[in-house]
From TrEMBL:
One Pfam family hit: Rubrerythrin
Alphabetical list of Gene3D superfamilies matching this protein: 1.20.1260.10
Organism (species): Enterocloster hominis (ex Hitch et al. 2024)
Rubrerythrin diiron-binding domain span: 39-165
Biological classification of the source: Bacteria, Bacillati, Bacillota, Clostridia, Lachnospirales
Record-given protein name: Ferritin family protein
InterPro entries: Ferritin-like (IPR012347), Ferritin-like_SF (IPR009078), Rr_diiron-bd_dom (IPR003251)
Length: 170
């Protein structure tokens, strides 16, 4: 059994200031995708709220998903502030070509058996890490890349937590 006292849900470093060098439509679109795209903070939050609800009988696991979702809400807020500073309306949407598309709960997979549920959560976190690393490679605003690097630390930490849950309960 896992003890909730054993976990911190964020990396042990402060977040950089939320600021950008200048408005940039391309970077703004990337931040919108982090908000409301297929692989986004909104997708993570909704998935973890769902997981929290269906794991109600396993209180330790439900609590972990609830607390990780709160960290993801902080990431959502950060990306929203960046999108706004970069010149975009920070709604729950993303760009597909020239069209803006609102986030949808259909973006998530919803396994209900614990092993598949944990694999899904782990893979979602790893996909976010990969996405943010890709963004770091082309974004030339050090303020944004510093924030992305800091958020990656949280996402890696979430992978570790979810892997520990998997080892303990699956």
């Amino acid at each position: 059994m896992l003890s909730m006292d054993d976990f911190r849900y964020t990396a042990d470093l402060p977040y950089p200031p939320i600021k950008v060098e200048m408005k940039n439509p391309a970077y703004a679109k990337a931040m919108l995708d982090n908000i409301g795209g297929l692989n986004s903070e909104m997708s993570a939050i909704s998935l973890y709220v769902y997981n929290n609800l269906i794991m109600e009988e396993k209180d330790e696991i439900a609590t972990i998903f609830r607390k990780v979702s709160i960290v993801e809400m902080h990431h959502l807020e950060i990306f929203g502030k960046l999108a706004l500073q970069l010149g975009e309306d920070p709604r729950m949407w993303t760009h597909y070509g020239c069209k803006k598309t609102y986030w949808s709960p259909s973006y998530n997979q919803y396994p209900s058996e614990l092993p598949a549920l944990m694999h899904n959560a782990i893979n979602s976190e790893k996909a976010a890490i990969s996405k943010y690393q890709h963004q770091i490679a082309y974004i030339r605003d050090e303020n944004i890349t510093d924030i992305l690097r800091r958020i990656i630390l949280d996402e890696r930490h979430h992978v570790e937590i979810f892997e520990q849950v998997y080892r303990t309960y699956c």
